[in-house]
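User: Study the fold:
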Amino acid sequence: MARPTAHTRRIAMATATAVVLTGGVAAAVLFGSDTSADGPGPALAHTSTTGKSDNKPRGAEPSGPGGDDSAPDGSDGSADSTGPAAPAAGTGISETIDHATESGGKSVSITIDDGPSPVWTPKILAVLKQYGVKATFCMIGPQARANPAMVKQVVAAGHRLCDHTVSHDEAMNKKPVAYQSAEVLDAQKMIEDAAGGGAKVQYFRAPGGAFTPDNRHLAAGHGMRPLGWNVDTKDWKQPGTATIVNTVKQQLKNGPIVLFHDGGGGRAQTVEALKELLPWLSQQGYTFSFPAV
């Protein structure tokens, strides 16, 4: 499959640097305020999930310490990335990247990345409630820590939590294992602390699909199933509601895990697209399920 040049975006008008220290590892994290009318959010750089800028083929040798190039569907390109594997010791959680639903059959999983957002997460929660759909929210650690009420609201509504790292570093697969560990485990703690009540993070999604065998093993060992995707709406580009809707309809043949966003910028198009897609999916005979654990 041809892999076009990656595209990135920056939402923030101003940025500041925060340093996260864990186990002696310093991770520089860029945050900023979205000064648009759409509301606040972290400064996130997104790579187009149709490919990476180095154009390396899937299954290429790792190009950095402990890392492989990620694939368009959130796989790390390693031979066992989607096949069966023994669960991580002591947790019963598979290290393989999940591209299936719990219920199987004609079902889909709605996954929501980059929040929580005090502006957009409540709107998305309202749409999900309207249509009786449960989703998986892949949260950025500092966003969860800054918005604990939203994390609690997500959990109270019966949705599941996913670790989307501390700094949304799409190049984390090129960096040392100690850095990857800090990104994954610090975020897990931030999200679970914000959720309170013993709520657990059940999945880990590497930003931009920057999975490695190391971070998959780490996540599974801490009770989190690596979570990929099959349908990339690219809603973070704000391409228009109709485009988001059509992308889902066209890509459903790829598999059941659908990727949306509630953080990182204005998500009005995502909200409107969900209003169209959720009833349409039901009309097509789809049911809604969480990703497999």
Summary: Strands lie at 14-22, 25-33, 107-115, 135-139, 160-163, 201-204, 225-226, 231-232, 257-261, 287-288. The two ends are 29 Å apart (CA to CA). The chain has seven helices and ten strands.
